[in-house]
Design a protein that fits this description.
With 438 residues, the protein is of the alpha/beta class. Helix content is 29%, strand content 25%. It has 14 helices and 25 strands.
Length: 438
């Protein structure tokens, strides 16, 4: 189990460029299955989740050509349908959460898909109902194979057919799957309560360039007129807003002066204002963000004097992927804040490690924690930790960077799933992180 050895208490200086968005990458890579023509995707982050999904598509028969490490050409003109029903495919797909989004493209173009229980972060119950119900609404048939815990999804002989549907939740990956299935379905599909995150907007714009007919991009009401086939295109990923939030948190926690380059400021939603509400000193400079945290930050109160609440919400609200970062950053602020994680019931359970580090956090229930800031830099003490998922892992890294002493973080492959060469990039800014490969 690989580890980071992190010497805390070092401030960061200089500038860092933001990599392409992981969540968008997984969606648009799956969308290459919708056409037999070439699709070139640029600004791909070099992280394990992206590499693993590309490898999975390659083994399905997609021709993959690396133009550069971050620019890849895909051509899905010879898909091996026997492979996607094999045990080998099931084993590889179930280890990768992003594999769930091959379901829509495969069933709409080829009439069949297989969905094993997907892997990914261990952050509690993560329903796939939105995916399944949406595809059923389009006419797909589902059969569950209990021995392999696998769903077999098949389109009727006449293909999928568009319809009106109201999603039970504004699921980002669920919306992506349904949109990708609907672009080749017959007739009109109307999706209400669709997710409208920048990642979904980017996917829709890419599909439109491929020949899809999609109206309402950027809203929660999408209308899709199915077409017979899609063509090739080129596509460039937007910057990863979760990486933006991570580096803001690191700079605040370590009292740093840091410039974040190419943050995609227009696509950050509530992220900058939420950090400002917990006292982080940041300035948006064009498409960059500067954090200059010379002094400890102070958490705002609501107008009536009650304790500030930071909660996740559908776009343009705060992404649930950011709440673990806000929780850690708040531990050394002046004041108190309630962190309310509405989507996942296990994402706050990493706070037991923060308690070991001396943080003053009260876990009220699986969804809420109260943080009472210590009001000083390096208020945490070093400890040993194990990363349970990507976002808790980066929060642990931020905590270790702002702590007194040297911490060890194990299972860092979870962090590598979402952050490209994070240790090397931070060490160039003044951090002291050693990677131990076990």
């Amino acid at each position: 189990m690989s580890s980071f050895i992190v010497e805390g208490g070092h401030s960061l200086h200089g500038e860092i460029s933001i990599k392409g968005a992981k969540n968008e990458a997984l969606e648009v890579i799956c969308a290459t299955l919708l056409t037999s023509e070439k699709v070139v995707i640029s600004n791909l982050p070099q992280i394990s989740d992206v590499r693993n999904l590309i490898n999975l598509l390659s083994e399905m028969g997609v021709k993959v050509k690396y133009i550069t490490p971050s620019e890849v050409e895909f051509q899905a003109d010879e898909i091996d349908l026997a492979y996607i029903t094999s045990d080998l495919y099931r084993k590889k797909a179930e280890s990768l959460r992003g594999s769930v989004m091959v379901m829509g493209p495969l069933v709409t173009r080829f009439g069949i898909a297989v969905m094993p229980r997907p892997g990914g972060d261990k952050i509690g119950r993560r329903r796939l109902d939105t995916h399944f119900v949406g595809l059923r609404n389009l006419g797909a048939n589902f059969n569950y194979e209990s021995e392999s815990h696998t769903y077999r999804i098949e389109a009727p002989a006449e293909g999928l057919k568009g319809c009106y549907m109201l999603l039970d939740e504004a699921s980002v990956t669920g919306t992506a799957n349904i949109v990708m299935a609907a672009v080749l379905a017959k007739g009109t599909t109307t999706i209400y309560n669709a997710a409208c995150e920048p990642y979904i907007q980017q996917l829709c714009r890419m599909l439109v360039r491929m020949g899809a007919h999609i109206e309402g991009i950027g809203s929660n009401l999408l209308r899709i007129e199915g077409v017979d086939q899609l063509g090739g295109t080129t596509h460039t990923l937007i910057p990863d807003m979760i990486e933006v939030g991570s580096f803001i948190g690191m700079a605040a926690m370590t009292g740093s002066n840091l410039l974040l380059r190419n943050v995609g400021a227009a696509d950050l939603g509530m992220l900058p204002s939420a950090f400002e509400r917990i006292g982080v000193n940041l300035q948006i400079e064009g498409n960059d963000i500067r954090i200059d945290q010379k002094e400890i930050y102070r958490i705002d109160e609501f107008i009536d004097g009650s304790i500030m609440t930071i909660a996740d919400a559908p776009w343009p609200g705060l992404s649930p992927d950011l709440l673990s970062i806000f929780l850690v950053v708040a531990t050394q602020a002046v004041g108190s804040v309630i962190i309310h994680q509405k989507m996942f019931e296990s994402r706050l359970f990493f706070v037991d490690k923060l308690l070991d580090m001396g943080a003053r956090v009260i876990l009220c229930d699986p969804h809420r924690a109260v943080v009472i800031g210590a009001g000083k830099f390096n208020c945490l003490r070093a400890t040993d930790m194990v990363s349970p998922d990507i976002r808790a892992g980066i929060a642990m890294l931020i905590a270790a960077m702002g702590a007194r002493g040297t911490s060890r973080i194990q299972n860092i492959n979870q962090i590598d799933r979402g952050y490209e060469n994070i240790d090397q990039r931070l060490n160039k800014l003044g951090a002291k992180i050693i990677r131990i490969e076990d």
